[in-house]
Amino acid sequence: MSLQSFIDKAISPWMQEEGPDHDIVLSTRLRLARNFTDVPFPLMAEDEKLKIVTNWIKEHFNHQSFEQYKNLEYFAMEDLQPLEKQVLVEKHLISPFLVERQKESGVLLSKNEQVSLMVNEEDHIRLQLYFPGLQLDRALEEAFKFDDWLEEKIDYAFDEDHGYLTSCPTNVGTGLRASVMMHLPALTLTGKVRKMIPAINQLGLVVRGIYGEGSEAAGNIYQISNQVTLGRTEQDIIDDLHSVVEQLIDQERYAREFLVEKSGLRLEDRIFRSYGILKYSRIIESKEAAKCLSDLRLAIDIGYIKNLSTAILSELMVLTQPGFLQQYAQETLTPEQRDIKRAMIIRERLRLEDK
Fold first, then answer.
1. Which residues, including other chains, have CB under 8 Å from residue 300's CB and lie 6 or more apart?
2. Nearest 10 degrees: CA dihedral of 139, 142, 147, 153?
3. Cβ-contact 225, 179 below 8 angstroms
4. Residue-wise pLDDT tens for the chain (355 aa)?
5. Is the dihedral of CA 214, 219, 220, 225 positive or negative?
6. Contacts of 199 (CB under 8 A, 6+ apart)
7. Which DSSP letter does residue 30 get?
8. E strands of the chain, at which residues?
9. Coil/strand/helix, residue 49
């Protein structure tokens, strides 16, 4: 399989589009946690009870379509191979926790992979919608519509005083988690991110790495999301997150201008060293690849390099993950073999740009 053909199959169609503020905001995700009213929550339920949920989802939603989200298809975790599950995690379509659930758990995916509905994870339903760039309001509108469509056939666990009931108390209320994936290399290089994170946390938001809780900000990619769901409306949550993200965008752009003006030669040297490593290395570990790809994306955004696509960071951050490397190789790889394959894929991807 050629690399271009693999990219076309591996990268979700929505990821190949450019959204608002795409030079800094890679993606917007909106997640709603919901539960069936007469079934125990997944963390306490026996398999027979959870089967009620999976059967209901398959009966009413498998191979259905809703507006632009075509051909929803259900995949049971116990039917997938370990590598297939790993790839779904790397694409953020399922969580590592869902992989561990195994029995009577699965995911309902739209054809364009913009909708991912995890079944019997921590809650009976975790509906996720993805959009390129900063599109929080649109994501909320689309999530509401999809949620209403689900609710036509599902009786949700809901309390008039507390809102939607969930397994984890932090999700009670709206059940909403909104997050924005941001590329913040200049704020990281200037050391300002470390100072900003405590202030962001005080606003009821949390800053995490690319794979959520407990993960590092690999490649200077940060995930900003809300922590509070109870006692606030969905629009309040979205508005607060949007306000903070816009401030981060402004600060990142200012920091980029500052670096170009004050440290232009050093920045240029760093960028082209990273470009050289990516273009010519034969072995590269994931951490070094992420750092160099971040530098390369920054170079494209500020105009130092003009012949490369801005999609390259998003693509290669996915394609060079362990699951994808092994899927491309069609075999299980040792860590060293993955480092070799990672370097090869990056070189090939850059050659595609040259053509």
1. 306, 308, 309, 310, 312
2. -160
3. yes
4. 454 555 556 778 888 888 999 999 999 999 999 999 999 999 888 989 999 999 999 999 999 988 888 889 999 999 988 888 888 898 889 999 999 876 889 999 998 899 999 999 999 999 999 999 999 999 999 999 999 999 999 999 988 888 888 888 888 888 999 999 999 999 999 999 888 988 898 888 999 876 554 445 678 999 999 987 777 889 999 999 999 999 999 999 999 999 999 988 999 999 999 999 999 999 999 999 999 999 999 999 999 988 888 888 788 888 899 988 998 888 899 999 999 999 999 999 888 876 6
5. negative
6. none
7. E
8. 25-34, 73-76, 106-109, 115-119, 125-132, 158-159, 163-164, 176-183, 205-208, 221-226
9. helix
Whole-prediction pTM value?
A: 0.90
Contact 93, 85 (CB under 8 A): no
Name the region of 77 (left: φ>0; alpha: ψ -120 to 50; beta: rest). Answer: alpha
Question: Whole-angstrom Cα distance, residue 33 to residue 172?
Answer: 9
Please count the residues of the chain.
355
Residue 69 pairs in a beta bridge with 66
